[in-house]
Amino acid sequence: MSAAMSMTMPTPELLFDEPMSLHTSWRVGGSADQFFRPTSVEALRDYLRDLPEDTSLHWVGLGSNLLVRDGGIRGAVICTLKLPAATERLDASRVAVGAGVPCTVFARQCVRWQLGPAAFFAGIPGTIGGALVMNAGAFGGETWERVETVETVDRSGARHTRSPDDYEIGYRSVVGPAQEWFLGATFAFDDDPAADMADIKAMLKKRGYSQPIGKLSCGSVFRNPPGQFAAELIEAAGLKGTERGDAVVSDKHANFILNRGSATAADIESLIEEVRDRVVEHSGTALQLEVRIIGETQGRSGE
Ligand SMILES: Cc1cc2nc3c(=O)[nH]c(=O)nc-3n(C[C@H](O)[C@H](O)[C@H](O)COP(=O)(O)OP(=O)(O)OC[C@H]3O[C@@H](n4cnc5c(N)ncnc54)[C@H](O)[C@@H]3O)c2cc1C
After folding, report:
1. How does pLDDT run across 99-137, given as a tens digit for each residue?
2. Quick check: 274 pLDDT over 80?
3. Pocket around ligand 1: residues whose beta carbon is below 6 Å from it?
4. Is 172 tagged catalytic?
5. Active site residue 290
6. Which residues are CB-contacts of 91 (< 8 A; sequence separation ≥ 6)?
């Protein structure tokens, strides 16, 4: 690399004891021992190569589907948000995008390119990497419906190009090669010359009527059981408004748990458990988590 290039390249950040509450949409969670925010894929690969094998590794995008416990994370967290935010049109219908790109940014760019079927990404407040892990969906669209290829990196820093056939893809569920993480994807969307930003605005406005948007949450806590809606089961069990500390089941959408400001991860997790138990008692349905829970409970870690 030339001296001129290295002067303009942003420096990757390696932080120690970084509070995960700064990186999750619930704004809770203790500190990660190491928090690495690479600014290039090469820096990421170097970091992975140097990481001792026994250091546990977690990834985070926008933290919009993640509950980090109050004792934090013993090990390393890689945050994708500063990876090069490339969104490149490959041809009339195909687009390549990096894992750290926010889905909302991606949706808007695709609509500008008149690739209207990508508009649903505007409803997902996470990154492309997070959407690939979750098979995130909104407004009738789902992430993996349009994936052509994904690029991954493994623990040794090696890169792989994979196709959807390498994954078992279901509703909010994606199972693929172990110990590989997403660097990006290519998508194919049909051309839709009628697509415009007003469609996105209208979709988001409609959603604002039924969901507590703008409050501290992780979206839907539970997956919808087949043929049922988790929110309806929670509401039917009389749980709207149920509280634990400063965590509360939303009055507007019962599958959202809100942090009113000073909730801890323990408050939220204990409320999740109460909701699950009371829904089983009331309807016999065992709800499955959509939200991912990681980290140590306080006390166990000694923090
Ligand atoms: C208000 C609100 C509304 C929401 N609405 C929707 C909705 O309509 N539909 C929907 O599907 N979801 C919704 N969500 C949930 C969330 O936005 C999605 O699950 C999103 O895909 C998570 O992306 P993220 O970048 O925030 O992932 P994170 O929360 O940071 O991580 C989620 C999981 O993905 C892993 N991960 C992240 N990046 C990578 C990577 N590059 N490679 C490998 N693993 C990675 C993490 O380790 C973690 O296990 C909503 C959330 C909120 C707060």
Report:
1. 999 999 999 999 999 998 999 999 999 999 999 999 999
2. yes
3. 25, 58-66, 80, 99, 123-127, 129-131, 133-134, 136-138, 181-182, 213, 217-219, 292
4. yes
5. yes
6. none
